[in-house]
Amino acid sequence: MLQKAILKISSLSPQSMISFLAAWKYWSVPKDHLLVREQTVSDYLYFIQKGAARIYYYKNGKEITEWIALDEQFFLSITSYFQRTPSHLIIQTLEPSEVYGISYNDFMALADRHHDIEKLLRKMITASLILSQERMDSIQFETAHQRYDRLLKTSPNIIQRVPLSYIASFLGITLETLSRIRSSR
Amino acid sequence: MLQKAILKISSLSPQSMISFLAAWKYWSVPKDHLLVREQTVSDYLYFIQKGAARIYYYKNGKEITEWIALDEQFFLSITSYFQRTPSHLIIQTLEPSEVYGISYNDFMALADRHHDIEKLLRKMITASLILSQERMDSIQFETAHQRYDRLLKTSPNIIQRVPLSYIASFLGITLETLSRIRSSR
DNA sequence: CAGGTGATTTGACATTTGTCAAATAATAAT
DNA sequence: ATTATTATTTGACAAATGTCAAATCACCTG
């Protein structure tokens, strides 16, 4: 559960852990629920205990899927959580899901009070940074085909759980290109 | 100078500042000096006081310029500093330069000892993350032409100081494409 | 200043992916 | 089951960028 996932990132003193866990909210939501609506002010970092969700936003009238999260993953809109832009992001569950979230302000306040929470935050952001770099490398140097193969390797069951249109957008290609990639194997 | 650049990111107690500054090494190096050679073990985070430098590595026999830094910028190889891969990165000065650097291990040890240094580190990584996201967004959604225009806007004088071949690689395009972009305006 | 080396530009063509339109398949609702 | 709706596939063509080869240009050295 949440506590275990936290400890995988960094250890916390019992006192810090108590304060930290208390700051997380919990939602149990049905499929196709919007966790964050456009225009919402408060930004959350999420942990999806069970289920599937995607983060997306609109760019020139088109949906861009920024991230897809399956069970037991932390996820957030990096752009929104740390830069507060584009604020028009939407988080939508793709299955009935159990989700935890902690607000930006709560997390920062706790990081200020507890050195070990600050360190945890730093490690989480570092992990994000590494992911971001890997994804950039993938977009820059790999063909669409290679990116699809890589995704399959990382999340073999994502195809069964997420519509292809979202996957295409997540991979940075069109639905048609993804379809052609899939039929050529 | 370095202290001022640090304070722009986050404030430090006098005690922390003294310890932190003491951990930085200083080099004054000529043009075309290799700050980090391939195979080097220790990875540094750099601050270029004056001059120009680029970080690059080889991928399938080709030079990939990961970053170009001009005066008064912090810079590092994200992949190398945080993941320790690809370790075959090279940092080369493009002008006579004055450079400061702090090793990964020293920085982490100081972050463990001082909460405010940990927070500074977190803010630096956050800034890196935001840059990384912006760059990914640029690579994913902008044409080569738009990326070039954006670079010109950010660093108008980079063209005079850095060979086009490095700039092309930094923008993720070939030298020929960059040349055509430049001639079409 | 002449020659040589490296940097940049130009040309012809190939490849990858996108766009738009239509067809087909899958799923949900009556 | 039948229809309606949505998801996926397919086709024809266009746009952006890459590749390889050659031509220029710029600068440094003797």
What's the architecture of chain A in CATH terms?
Sandwich
Taken from the alpha-carbon principal axes, the silhouette of chain A is globular
Query: What is the largest interface, and how many residues per chain?
Result: A-B, 26 and 26 residues
Kindly provide the radius of gyration of chain A, computed on alpha-carbon positions and rounded to a whole number of angstroms.
17 Å
Major sheet summary line of chain A:
4 strands, antiparallel
Overview of the structural elements:
The structure is a homodimer of 185-residue chains. By secondary structure, chain A is of the alpha+beta class. The first copy, chain A, contains nine helices and eight strands. In chain A, β4 (52-59) and β5 (62-70) form a beta hairpin. The radius of gyration of chain A is 17 Å and the shape is globular. In chain A, α4 packs across α5 (115-141) and α8 (164-171) crosses α9 (175-183). In chain A, 34% of the residues are buried. Chain A has one domain (2-141): Sandwich (Jelly Rolls), CATH 2.60.120.10. Chain A has a four-stranded antiparallel sheet. A four-stranded antiparallel sheet of chain A has the order 2-7-4-5. Chain A has helices at 2-9, 14-22, 78-83, 104-113, 115-141, 144-154, 158-161, 164-171, 175-183, and strands at residues 25-29, 34-36, 44-50, 52-59, 62-70, 73-75, 89-93, 97-103. The A-B interface holds A 59, 78-79, 82-83, 111-112, 115, 118-119, 121-122, 125-126, 128-130, 132-133, 135-137, 139-141, 172 and B 59, 78-79, 82-83, 111-112, 115, 118-119, 121-122, 125-126, 128-130, 132-133, 135-137, 139-141, 172. Chain B binds a DNA duplex (30 and 30 nucleotides) through residues 143-145, 163-165, 173-180, 182-183.
